[in-house]
Design brief:
The structure holds two protein chains of two kinds. By secondary structure, chain A is mostly helical. Chain A has a single domain, classed as MetI-like (MetI-like fold). Chain A has helices spanning 5-13, 15-46, 51-66, 69-83, 94-120, 123-131, 136-166, 178-189, 192-220. Chain A is built from nine helices and no strands. Helices cover 38% and strands 26% of the residues of chain B. The longest helix of chain B is centred in the C-terminal third of the chain and has 16 residues, at 184-199. Chain B has two domains: 1-93 and 171-230, P-loop containing nucleotide triphosphate hydrolases (Rossmann fold), CATH 3.40.50.300; 102-169, no CATH class. By secondary structure, chain B is α/β, with parallel strands linked by helices. The chains are: A mainly alpha, B alpha/beta. Chain A binds chain B through residues 122, 124-125, 127-136, 138, 142-143, 146-147, 150, 221, 223-225, and chain B through 55, 57, 81, 84-85, 88-96, 98, 100, 102-106, 115-116, 119-120, 146-148, 150-151, 164-165, 168.
């Protein structure tokens, strides 16, 4: 048996795989977005002065980093409905379960990224904002947050890529994402190489797009005047005739 | 630059304690409109802490501050966000220029100057922009209004920082060693701006090690040591016949 490139191509262009890729991207982006917001709040709690907030955030990070994400997904999809009858209803889909599991687990990692980013903003920046009469909220939004984002972009990009690959874990809770689609096709045809290769191709393409996106974002947060990259920079010639 | 009228800023018995150590010990200082006071003293003498207390960046452990007769920095709210809100309103009326400039690195010069107007004073952006440009012009940086802080020299950054404080129209402007972090050749351009402000009647307190400059602009010189003001006098008396031995020692050392 050799590699059947026709089969590979058909898989790649099938609506099944496209839909799988769409689910993978949606789940990754939604989970990462939720994790980013939750992680930022956890980081604020962790850096706050009140002990209960600090402790709660610390415990959260401890628990969610310690237990494997795969186990979280199984717990949420299989064990939780056993305890909470409402979760046996139809709205509780594998996508929702996956979204909850992935974003809760990822929030612990994002919290650590934001915590160190918050700590690395020069404290005198807040002082200067304060001196202008900004409230703590204004100073956070206008002064601290942009600087935190800049510091957090590279590690967060890394996290998003990891998240994209972690969505494949939801194949254990039967979400029809890329890997599940590949496995179902394999089960029907016993052609491993073609379908795995098709799934791998999708991941490769999606991650490449994300990497370009990250580069663009980093460029936006460079905070220096951009010299035009093509052609010579414009030189002021006032008064030269 | 003649001082006159009721005090703009009046601080009485300001004290600040850090971890059981008294850093500022019952210092009183008052400023009439247009008056300029210069504070000198060795490092660790409490000059910066005093200034931060006056700017309400630190809450004094003792003493009272009045701005145009109104008590400021006194708050009875128990909730910290309500307290911060009240303090923020008072801080907006006191300008502060820092030793290390503390410009916001993500904002262009112009936006550094206008962010206080749009955020704190709630001015519409175009009006804030107009005022920011005027202020940058005043400190001689109209040309550089679109530069980011990292693209400016230290002296330019400090001039933007002065414009940023000035644009809020503070009742009093406080300078915390504004030229200490600058390369020697960049000191003059900043001092020129401060001298122009003094001449235009701005009420100011300047903590500085530039003695000639202090002598030129100050109505009164204060010498601080170990958290207290050990000597205060008009500049000519202060420099020619200081009474306190610490002042003499310090002046000799600075020569």
């Amino acid at each position: 048996m050799t590699f059947d490139s026709g089969l590979y191509w058909d898989a790649l262009t099938s609506s099944e795989f496209l839909h799988g890729a769409f689910l993978t991207i949606t789940l990754a982006l939604a989970s990462q977005a939720a994790a980013t917001i939750l992680g930022f709040l956890l980081a604020l709690m962790r850096n706050s002065r009140g002990f209960p907030l600090r402790a709660a955030s610390g415990v959260y990070v401890w628990i969610f980093r310690a237990i494997p994400t795969l186990l979280w997904l199984l717990l949420i999809w299989n064990a939780l409905p056993q305890l909470i009858p409402a979760l046996t209803e139809e709205w509780f889909t594998p996508f929702i379960a996956g979204f909850i599991g992935l974003s809760l687990a990822e929030a612990a990692y994002m919290a650590e990224i934001f915590r160190s980013a918050l700590l690395s903003v020069d404290p005198e920046q807040r002082l200067a904002a304060k001196a202008l009469g900004m409230t703590p909220f204004q100073s956070m939004r206008k002064i601290v947050l942009p600087q935190v984002i800049r510091i957090a972009i590279p590690p967060s990009g890394n996290e998003l890529i990891t998240m994209l690959k972690f969505t494949s874990l939801t194949s254990v809770i039967s979400l029809q994402e890329l890997l599940t689609v590949a496995q179902q096709n394999i089960a029907a045809t016993f052609r491993y190489a073609e379908f795995y290769a098709a799934a791998a191709t999708y991941y490769l393409v999606i991650v490449s797009v994300l990497m370009v996106g990250q580069m663009q974002l980093e460029r936006r947060y460079e905070w220096r005047t951009r010299v035009r990259r093509w052609g010579l920079p414009r030189v002021r010639t006032e008064g030269a005739g | 630059m003649n001082a006159s009228g009721p005090p703009v800023l009046e601080a009485e018995g300001i004290s600040k304690v850090y971890e059981g150590q008294s850093v500022v010990d019952e210092v009183s200082v008052g400023l009439a409109r247009g008056e300029v006071k210069a504070i000198i003293g060795p490092s660790g003498s409490g000059k910066s802490t005093l200034l931060r207390c006056l700017a309400l960046l630190e809450i004094p452990d003792g003493g009272r501050i009045r701005l145009e007769g109104e008590p400021i920095g006194e708050t009875h709210h128990r909730l910290s966000f309500a307290r911060e809100r009240e303090l923020a309103r008072d801080r907006a009326n006191i300008g502060m220029v820092f030793q290390r400039f503390n410009l916001f690195p993500h904002l262009r010069a112009e936006d550094n100057v206008l962010v206080g107007l749009t955020t704190v004073r709630k001015l519409p952006r175009d009006e804030a922009q107009e005022r920011a440009r005027q202020m940058l012009q005043r400190v001689g940086l109209a040309e550089r209004s679109h530069a980011f802080p990292s693209e400016l020299s230290g002296g330019q950054q400090q001039r933007v920082a002065i414009a940023r404080a000035l644009v809020m129209e503070p009742k009093v402007l406080l300078f915390d060693e504004p030229t200490s972090a600058l390369d020697p050749e960049l000191v003059r351009e900043v001092l020129d701006v401060i001298e122009e402000l003094a001449a235009s009647g701005m009420t100011m307190i300047v903590v500085t090690h530039e003695l000639e400059f202090a002598r030129g602009i100050a109505n009164e010189m204060l010498m601080m040591d170990e958290g207290s003001v050990v000597e205060r006098a008009d500049p000519s008396t202060f420099f020619t016949s200081p009474e306190h031995s610490r002042t003499r020692q310090f002046l000799d050392h600075m020569e």
